[in-house]
User: Fold this.
Amino acid sequence: MRYTSFTSYDFVLLAQGLGVSLALFLATTLIGLLVGTIWAVIRFYRVPVLTQFITFFAELLKNSPVLVQLFLVFFGLPAVAKINVTPVEAAVITLSGNTAAFIYVIAVSAIESIGRDQIESARVFGLPRWQILRHVIAPQAMAFAVGPLTGLLVNQLQVTSLISVIGVVDLTKIGNILNLRTLKPFIVWTIVGGLYYVTAKLVALGGAKLERRLRAHTAWKGL
Amino acid sequence: MTFDVTILAPHVPFILKGALLTAEACALALVGSLIIGLLVAALRTSSSAILSRAAFVYVDLFRNIPFIVQLFFFFYGLPEIGIYIDAFTTGVIALSIAGGAFSSDVIRSGILAIDTGILEAAEVSGLSKPVIFRKIVMPIALRTSIRPLGSVFINLVLTSSILSTITLNELTGSAKIVASDTFRPFEVYAVLLIVYASLTYLVSLAIGALHRHLNRDRMPDVA
Assistant:
């Protein structure tokens, strides 16, 4: 008996892989958003040594392949620190760090996009630095950042496919498994690619909707 | 375990051989993606609705599907239809096609940024469409989009690390071999991270210099 034909169970496998990919994408996006924003706030407060360190670290993360970062965390960390790192943990650490580095850049430029006159007048009114950040900068910076953020997230969704290399059973790994079993690469990789494509389109659509909502207050309402 | 980089000294020639392969693949893929990018950008800005739609579908597909999936599609798929080529050629083809999608977007916006007065003047002078494209549109669009093309190329260099998954021993692939030879994965991948980061930093410096050189006569506008 040969097992080269597709079965209905393969759909379950694909759905499972897509679920793993999506879960990791969402988790690392949330962690990356949090960490990246914290880094940007640290820069906003101009904390002496930390700011320079973060800028350097983010630059390093942005300018090296995610694959090498993954290998460093998955193979390197256990060897040097004598700790166990599972593939999923390594994936979460690496992807979160990578996303955070890019979000840091977006957040910094979003904060800088707000005119100095606004910050100065807020200071004249006696608002402390934290309230300026919270009530003056954050709402406007958010609307500014959604556009680039959507582009970044569409990109990061595709970066999640790399974690299949260290053995996380995500959509690409499922594609690999099906490919080896059925020996029908065109069908398998077309389906896998199609699933990624649809997901990326949904992310882009959601981002565009959110941007319209956040920018609604500046839209022309008519007379 | 301590952090000791000197242990890698005997493996430097081997790593350099991998780096050379990376450089070769990137150079070939740069040429390939520039040619594809120019062609597709010409199609996307053409007056024919069918051609520009077709070009849009190509760009949309290859930008929204992970590179590793595209790579597996070609690597496992091409032998299926009777095309037997080695991993290096497959990698360069896949990199060129993916890079072409990104660079066509950049070149397209360079074309759209051209002052329509220039094109009207060219048409009035009686130049044929191909001549206008080759002699007027292309030089202007390419020199204004040198900087974004540079970041596409840097991305290409980082993406080339994925070629190690299809048995190609480029920089990342040979580092993987060294890591399993020496049992010092952390040192190997940390050094690799720095190498990639400094490599892309040098590329971005070169791009900046090239940009300034090409646009030296209109410095105030673009520099």
The two ends of chain B are 49 Å apart (CA to CA). DSSP finds ten helices and no strands in chain B.
